[in-house]
Amino acid sequence: MIFRPKERMITELLGDPLVQMMMHADRVDPQDLARELHKLANALKPKSLPIACRVCPA
Q1: Are the CB atoms for 31 and 14 separated by under 8 Å?
Q2: Does residue 19 contact residue 25 with C-beta atoms inside 8 Å?
Q3: Does some domain include residue 2?
Q4: Does residue 40 lie within any of the structural domains?
Q5: Which of 6, 14, 32, 49 is most buried, most CB within 10 Å of its CB?
Q6: CA 27: distance to chain centroid?
Q7: Angle 17-25/30-44 helices, nearest 10 degrees?
Q8: Could you give the residue ranges of the DSSP H alpha helices within 1-58?
Q9: Which pTM value belongs to this model?
C-alpha cells in the first residue's frame, strides 16, 4: 500500500503559522499574494472548446 498524504488547499497552507512567519520575513503581503494567485488560477482555467470540437469523436 502506498501512503499518499492529503493534499492541502492553498488557504490551509497560507494559514499555517510557519508559512506566515516566512512570508512576514520575506515581506510578502498576503493580500497581494492572494490577488496574484487568483489571477494565475483564472489564466490557467481551461478554455471551452468550440461546439464543432465537442462533437468530434475522440
Answers
A1: no
A2: no
A3: no
A4: yes
A5: 14
A6: 21
A7: 100
A8: 10-15, 17-25, 30-44, 51-54
A9: 0.57
CB 32 within 8 A of CB 16: no
Q: How many domains would you assign to the chain? A: 1
Structure-block grid coordinates of residue 52: 464543432
Structural domain boundaries, residue 27: 10-54
Q: Which residue has the cell 512567519?
A: 21
Q: Say if residue 58's pLDDT is above 60.
A: no
- pLDDT per residue over 2-51, tens digit each? 766 677 788 888 889 999 999 999 999 988 998 898 898 888 887 766 66
Question: Which 8-state DSSP code applies to residue 6?
Answer: P
What confidence score (pLDDT) does residue 19 get?
93
33 in a structural domain: yes
